[in-house]
Design the sequence.
């Protein structure tokens, strides 16, 4: 079960053992307090039992009870000894509220000034009060996220600051208000200290081996599209047509890639040079596998390169300029491809009518590097520039061409998570832009 309503919902994950008894596997984002409120907003009745339920938990240093009156006054009682709450274990607290002294909670603000870097980030204002304060945010680059904790014990109120894109430091303000007064919090944000302190925006690479005679291949195409939508557009897709496809779609340089990734048949999908997502007509299943592979990549392999690119076209002559930014010293591989969108042609379907007007997108046309990648060594903090020229085929629609570039990095000492033996490299980052446009290196917001 899960409690929603904040950025960090409490989530309890249970499984059922062979004996049929639920087993608690994990708890994420646990709360530090449990609140028991009198039924229907009334008062607790003398001599009546009230219950609080929780997952199994240990309190090695004991715990505190906080009692609050309708007028906001509170009293606390500490249980100092170690307590363990087990499954199906009932504890009784008798006379817990006996001889308590109630007093008002004064408003306590522990964070009058916040100093931030220029990056997109969360920050916390800590407040103790008998209820949630009211916030007036006086700067449009600051937004409220949610609360962690109970204000009566002291709560962290989380805010988010957008990346500072101005040329100088800036200051914003948040008015934190009790019932009677407002207290101003000053939020100071610097400018980014340079791209080495930034986090690159990550794009994964979805490589689809396909053929126009392959009746199952369109289903993987739909799976990749669905996965890209679910990932917020951060999956770069390239479609590689075998030599037995419609001649208008054949990618002559496909063979080295097919050999590297041990192509077993069609369709075949590889994510980031690491994971085979399977072949199925179940669009949702392959989309799930693709999303899972991307999320696994992002949680395991921190992106260390960024790519900026620009291209121009004069008649059939293509020029591409590309910059690779590196935050780690390593020997990388660079692959640059020309793709074409909007190619209308035949496609066989299994279980559905064939189509003569199927629209093929992200079709690999030309490799400007070795198709498996050109090796280069780059130092941390270095920006390395590359330039390419090529003559394009007249049959290609010059208005629908896209440049795709991706950087591969060796696993090195990192965990080697692969579904097959695809070599020592994985795709660290990818980027694309239509021919004739410029794409600057992108940083995470």
Sequence:
């Amino acid at each position: 079960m899960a409690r929603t309503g904040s950025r960090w919902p409490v989530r309890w994950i249970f499984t059922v053992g062979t004996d049929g008894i639920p087993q608690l596997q994990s708890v994420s984002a646990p709360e530090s307090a449990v609140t028991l409120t009198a039924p229907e907003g009334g008062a607790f009745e003398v001599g009546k039992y009230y219950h609080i339920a929780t997952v199994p938990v240990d309190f090695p240093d004991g715990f505190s009870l906080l009692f609050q009156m309708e007028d906001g006054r509170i009293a606390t009682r500490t249980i100092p000894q170690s307590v363990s709450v087990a499954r199906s274990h009932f504890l009784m607290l008798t006379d817990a509220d006996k001889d308590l002294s109630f007093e008002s909670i004064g408003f306590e603000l522990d964070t009058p000034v916040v100093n931030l870097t220029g990056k997109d980030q969360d920050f916390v204002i800590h407040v103790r009060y008998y209820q949630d304060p009211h916030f007036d945010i006086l700067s449009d680059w600051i937004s409220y996220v949610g609360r962690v904790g109970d204000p009566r014990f002291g709560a962290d109120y989380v805010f988010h600051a957008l990346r500072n894109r101005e040329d100088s430091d800036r200051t914003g303000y948040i008015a934190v208000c009790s019932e009677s007064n407002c207290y101003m919090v000053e939020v100071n944000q610097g400018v980014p200290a340079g791209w080495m302190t930034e986090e690159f925006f990550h794009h994964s690479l979805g490589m689809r081996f396909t053929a126009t005679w392959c009746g199952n291949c369109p289903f993987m195409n739909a799976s990749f599209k669905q996965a890209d939508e679910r990932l917020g557009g951060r999956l770069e897709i390239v479609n590689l047509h075998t030599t037995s496809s419609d001649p208008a779609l054949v990618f002559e340089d496909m063979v080295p890639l097919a050999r590297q990734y041990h192509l077993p048949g069609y369709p075949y999908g590889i994510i980031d040079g690491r994971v085979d997502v399977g072949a199925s007509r179940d669009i949702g299943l392959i989309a799930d596998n693709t999303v899972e592979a991307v999320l696994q990549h992002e949680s395991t392999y921190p992106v260390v390169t960024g790519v900026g690119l620009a291209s121009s076209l004069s008649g059939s002559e293509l020029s591409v300029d590309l910059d690779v930014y590196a935050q780690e010293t390593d020997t990388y591989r660079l692959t640059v491809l020309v793709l074409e969108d909007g190619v209308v042609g035949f496609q066989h379907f299994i279980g559905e009518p064939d189509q003569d007007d199927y629209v093929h997108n992200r079709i690999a046309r030309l490799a400007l590097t070795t198709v498996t990648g050109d090796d280069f060594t780059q130092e941390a903090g270095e920006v390395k520039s590359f330039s390419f020229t090529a003559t394009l085929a007249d049959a290609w629609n010059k208005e629908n061409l896209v440049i795709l570039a991706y950087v591969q990095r060796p696993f090195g000492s990192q965990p080697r998570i692969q579904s097959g033996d695809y070599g020592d490299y994985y795709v660290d980052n990818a980027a694309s832009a239509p021919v004739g446009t410029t794409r600057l290196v992108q940083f995470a917001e």
In short: The domain at 108-193 is CATH 2.60.40.10 (Immunoglobulin-like). The mean pLDDT is 89. The first strand starts at residue 2 and ends at 3. The CA atoms of residues 302 and 428 lie 8 Å apart.
